[in-house]
Amino acid sequence: MKNLFTILLFSCTLSAFAQTDSLVDNKTEVDYKWRVSMPYFVPEGLIVDSWNDRTSTQHLELHIKRNLDNKNIIGLKLASWRLFQPMGITWWDGLLDKIESESEFYPGHVRETGIGITYQRMLWKGLFATVEVLPQLQTYMDLDGNKIGNDFKLYTSYHLGYHIAFGKKKHFFIEPQINCMYWMFDNNAPEGFKELDDKWRNYFLFEPQIYLGWNF
């Protein structure tokens, strides 16, 4: 979390000094019809050793977007992650230390996978707002990795951020942003999972995030 805030602060400072860094101000970048991006922490999740960690979310996420014009961008979101505790536990709940919060661990894991749609609107220079809607299939597993149930979840997120492109041809970009998430319909969780889900909220507010991407 400390590293994320450091990167976020650095990116915001950099954007204040960047020249012609946004999609709207740079006509060269508008020529790129497509872009791909992912949250900055995804490559960390690809490390094999981390998948053996009880608290690893095994988070994989990819965005494929098309620039319709200088203002409107639509796309697909492909995502899969594994939860070891309710998503509604926020940083202000005092449970940042995963070891101290073991009482909130699921009796196993839940794998959530889906393909969704996104819409991004450029508001002013590099400032943007994004809405993402992600239907997900949920697979519940016990501590031994055995499947014990299925469910469906509709996950939505709302983003406010800033687009910063780098390099002579503006291929590479980062998007520091603040996200709010809300989800619904996950009501058929097995016993033990449902008890913890009902204890916590079905939204998460003000998560800092950074997306890394490439225009082409």
Give the tags.
47% strand, 9 strands, eight-stranded antiparallel beta barrel, 4 helices, 216 residues, disordered N terminus, mainly beta
Report on the structure:
Residues 1-28 have low confidence and may be disordered. Strands 1-2-3-4-5-6-8-9 form an eight-stranded antiparallel barrel. Helices cover 14% and strands 47% of the residues. The protein has four helices and nine strands; from the N terminus they run H-H-E-H-E-E-E-E-E-E-E-H-E. It has 216 residues and is mainly β.
Largest beta-sheet characterization: 8 strands, antiparallel, barrel
- Give the CA-CA distance, first to last residue: 31 Å
Structural class: mainly beta
* Structural shape: elongated
Bin the strand percentage: over 45%
**Radius of gyration, Cα only, in angstroms?**
18 Å
Spatial arrangement of strands, main beta sheet = 1-2-3-4-5-6-8-9
Helix content: 10-25%
What's the short version?
The chain has 216 residues and is mainly beta. It contains four helices and nine strands; from the N terminus they run ααβαβββββββαβ.
Question: How do the strands and helices of this protein lay out in sequence?
Answer:
Blueprint: H1 2-17, H2 27-30, E1 34-39, H3 42-45, E2 60-67, E3 72-83, E4 109-124, E5 127-141, E6 147-162, E7 164-166, E8 172-184, H4 193-199, E9 203-215
Antiparallel strand pairs: 1-2, 1-9, 2-3, 3-4, 4-5, 5-6, 6-8, 7-8, 8-9
